[in-house]
Amino acid sequence: MLFSSYAFLFCFLPLALLAWQAAARMERPNRALERVLLFLSLVFYGFWGLDFLVLLLGMIVMNHAFGTALAAPEGLPPDAREAAGARAARTRRSRRRLLVAALACNLLPLLWFKYSGFLVESAARLCGAHWAFTPPGLPLGISFYTFIQIAWLVGVYRREVAPEGLVRHALFTSCFFWVISGPIVRYGQMGPQLDALAGTGAENLARGFTLLSLGLGKKVLLADSIGASADAVFNAAGAGIAPSALEAWLGSLAYTFQLYFDFSGYTDMALGLGLMFGLRLPENFASPYKATGVVEFWRRWHITLGAWLRDFLYIPLGGNRRGRPRQYANLFLTMLLGGAWHGAGWTFILWGALHGLMLSVNHFFRARVRGTRLERLLSRAPARLLCIALTFVCIDLCWVVFRSASPDAALTMYAAMFGAGPEVWPPLPAPDAGAGLAGFLARLDPAAPDSLLAALLPNRFFAGWLPFALLAVCAVIVWCCPNSQELLGDGPGAAGAEGARTRLRWRPSAAWATGLAVLTFVSLVLASRETVFLYFQF
After folding, report:
1. Are 235 and 141 within one domain?
2. Of the candidates 452, 482, 512, which is a domain's last residue?
3. Is 340 helix (H, G, I), strand (E, B) or coil?
4. Please, where are the H alpha helices in 72-221?
5. One-character DSSP codes across 30-83
6. CA-atom Rg of the chain in angstroms
7. Of 459, 482, 505, which residue constitutes the final position of a domain?
8. Can you give the residue range of the structural domain that contains 123?
């Protein structure tokens, strides 16, 4: 049951809102709302498979037991007679061992369901053997709720949060706004809001519906539409068919925009659903393709994942506290593991390694120019635009290996993009000086066998004008328009915004209602071609 499916939009969501408002009128509304939301979340997740639901419930019960044990003030029996200092040291060691056991029990299911097939296949290739092994199915959202549980356990271990009952822990872990694809929430962010659950007001409903409509439009109208062209190019490269240079670049751009609007659309819908139920989820996406460097990109793209990797991998490894070489090594290792988190395959590991390398280079460059004239020059508009363009090209090239089915397919794409393959730029037809404007336009017709576009796009991966129009629309929205949070006045750049951003600011007006209604109607018409969100596979 996808956020963009008819079953969710026309059945589950209306019934959920009705149940929510009814629970808000009960004698003990907070307790009733908590249980209603937990029930709805378990029903929502159960639609993906009862076996997955059983695993999720088992993980919840296990982690609540670990958290309760970690929260205990003493780890020794009351009749222990050690000195106070020795007892405290022993208690710390006991809690540390308990935390290690809890983390291992969380990571083992993730390793089994997500990585067992990849590890067995890699070991078989290394040994030159063929081992028959059927990998288990991947439980939906296991990467996300495992990270949510780990953050909660570490918070309990550090005495930053305390277990508040099995029902609360189950709701925090399985809430349907974030259990499938994030955001990766922390209890410190959501716990106080869960304490203050209440019926939904008109403004939250209006804002939530706005985000839901914008996200639905991004997913259905942009991501799914441009994704067909990206799939055609990358599937051909995976089959060993080399695209032309222009096809390879257009295919990489198509996937770069597809992933952007797919993930941005999901994030908008998740945040919008949260608002409808009175919860403000953490921001997870803030115009990442406007970043002027890879460091800034990771402060804008999948913000909650970047924060998790920073807090639970990069900083425990030493962060930047042990000199620059160690900092760069920590960055590289963190991103290597972040790439592996996205999927069980060498392409994801290579993607993480590339980002670790780029982050290290970006940090080194920022340290070298800090306080110099070059830093002031780079802060000016022309230089910033150049930095945005360069960063985008680097990100686009990294998405190629991320999307490719194998390292060989990625090499096929790179060879085509950089002119290393045969007939990458096919010979263009000779111009006819006497043909005039009509002849020139005829040579642009992709259906004509001797046209310019037929020579540059020989495989017909981009047939017709629609893919090019979609690429242009995506580019305009990415670089010329405010993001969804800024439209609602909630984004980091929303305060004091001027110009076009102010004119486009959301208002509870007839014009906005009409526009959103039209957007929703068109999106629903096309939503019948149901496709899952890309981040579901991670």
Report:
1. no
2. 482
3. helix
4. 84-110, 116-127, 142-157, 166-174, 187-195, 202-217
5. HHHHHHHHHHHHHHHHHTT-HHHHHHHHHHHHHHHHHHHHHH-S-SS-TT--S-
6. 26
7. 482
8. 20-199
Output the six-digit token pair for 338: 């972040």
Same domain for 175 and 262?
no
**Residue the block writes with tokens 């890879």:** 294
Residues 164 and 229 in one domain: no
Burial class of residue 17 (count of CB atoms within 10 Å of its CB; 0-12, 13-18, 19+):
middle
Catalytic residue, from 64, 169, 302, 342: name it. Answer: 342
Query: How far apart are the C-alpha atoms of 468 and 455, rounded to whole Å?
Result: 17
User: Are 358 and 301 spatial neighbours (Cβ–Cβ below 8 Å)?
Assistant: no
- Number of neighbours of residue 88 by Cβ within 10 angstroms: 13
Q: Examine the domain organization and report whether 245 and 391 are in the same domain.
A: yes
**429 domain residue, yes or no:** yes
> pTM of the entire structure?
0.89
Q: Is 342 a catalytic residue?
A: yes
In a domain, 534, yes or no: no
| CA dihedral for 79, 82, 88, 93, sign (positive or negative) | negative
Residues 163 and 274 in one domain: no
d(Cα 342, Cα 363) in Å, to the nearest integer? 23
How distant, in Å, are the alpha carbons of 5, 39, 194, 340, 436 from that of 10?
Answer: 8, 19, 26, 37, 56
111 and 40 within one domain = yes
Tell me how many domains the chain contains. 2
Closest CA to 174 of 30, 305, 37, 281: 37
| Residue appearing with tokens 């129009």 | 469
Residue 523 belongs to a domain: no
pLDDT, tens digit, 9 for 90 and up, residues 239-295: 988 888 889 999 999 999 999 999 999 999 999 999 999 999 999 999 999 999 999
Asked whether residue 425 falls in the same domain as residue 290, the answer is yes
| Per-residue tokens: 71 | 């929260």
Does 418 fall in a domain? yes
Q: List pLDDT tens digits, range 296-355.
A: 999 999 999 999 999 999 999 998 888 899 999 999 999 999 999 998 899 999 999 999
Same domain, 288 and 362: yes
Report yes or no: 330 and 317 within 8 Å, Cβ to Cβ: yes
